[in-house]
Amino acid sequence: MGGAMLAGWLAGGIAPESFTVVDPYLAEAPAGVTLLREAPADAAPFDVVLLGFKPQQLADSAAPIVPLVSEGTVLLSVLAGVDLETLRRLFPAARAIVRVMPNLAAAMGKSPIGLVGEGDAASRAEVDGLMAPLGQAEWLTGEDRMDLVTALAGSGPAFVYRMIDALASGAAELGLPRDQADRLALAMVEGAAALAAASPNSPGELADRVASPGGTTRAGLDVLDAEGRIAALMTDTLRAARDRSAEMTREARARG
Ligand SMILES: NC(=O)C1=CN([C@@H]2O[C@H](COP(=O)(O)OP(=O)(O)OC[C@H]3O[C@@H](n4cnc5c(N)ncnc54)[C@H](O)[C@@H]3O)[C@@H](O)[C@H]2O)C=CC1
Ligand SMILES: O=C(O)[C@@H]1CCC=N1
């Protein structure tokens, strides 16, 4: 995820020389970006530090980063299920701590981004500026909403990919060659999403616009909508992801 954000920042015109990546395993960093295998022991604190490792690594990986975070540092975390309280306990000096929930489309400047954090208006404006090249950022009114936004914005692409795959599988099952079904399903979703993004109408309205009375689309929508199937499936999917995020938050707190 950190690599996708870095790609988005570089594509947005930020100089590669302004980034330092600390990663013990990453094969290489983009040209001009400094890649270190461990946090530098003697470096001055950074203006912005982004935590991008796995949530389960936080307790072990935080210590070498603590000296890089001072009263002048904005600490950003993309770690799912790690709350502000846990981050503040580990990084007491930070000027501001902000949880950021993007997805991999940040590399193309197309990510939804949920934000929640502490800090003054100046810190928030700084974070808004940093997020601008990555996609559409929105501040959440409470941290309790971050679990759900993690499910929707963070995990959401996987749910959509599963649906594209299911559409192609269904078309293959019904007779199309699989590779052709894959191409047509993907092109259809790309076009439908672009159209919806550019339209003043809601996706719900657009679905009804595609459906001619008594036509093919209505026959298909009737299957999706029967007994609230699609709505219940999506709600259950988001609920499971949201609840796992809440559970991870409790686990991270217990790890300290
Ligand atoms: N994959 C996704 O779409 C999203 C992931 N996230 C969050 O992003 C974080 C990373 O997830 P992914 O990018 O999927 O995992 P990943 O495995 O692709 O990236 C993790 C990176 O951390 C590095 N790493 C391992 N130990 C380290 C250490 N001690 N210090 C510094 N770096 C270390 C790894 O070498 C790797 O490059 C997680 O906290 C996850 O919750 C958030 C939103 C979306
Ligand atoms: O699956 C995960 O836990 C991470 C957070 C959101 C997307 N990937």
TrEMBL record:
PROSITE patterns: P5CR. The keyword Membrane does not apply. One of its GO terms (cellular component) is cytoplasm. It is found in: Cytoplasm. One of its GO terms (molecular function) is 2-dehydropantoate 2-reductase activity. Pathway: Cofactor biosynthesis; (R)-pantothenate biosynthesis; (R)-pantoate from 3-methyl-2-oxobutanoate: step 2/2; Amino-acid biosynthesis; L-proline biosynthesis; L-proline from L-glutamate 5-semialdehyde: step 1/1. Its EC number is 1.5.1.2. Keywords: Amino-acid biosynthesis, Cytoplasm, NADP, Oxidoreductase, Pantothenate biosynthesis, Proline biosynthesis. It catalyses: L-proline + NADP(+) = (S)-1-pyrroline-5-carboxylate + NADPH + 2 H(+); L-proline + NAD(+) = (S)-1-pyrroline-5-carboxylate + NADH + 2 H(+); (R)-pantoate + NADP(+) = 2-dehydropantoate + NADPH + H(+). Residues 39-105 form the Ketopantoate reductase N-terminal domain. HAMAP family: P5C_reductase (MF_01925). This is Pyrroline-5-carboxylate reductase. It comes from Novosphingobium flavum.
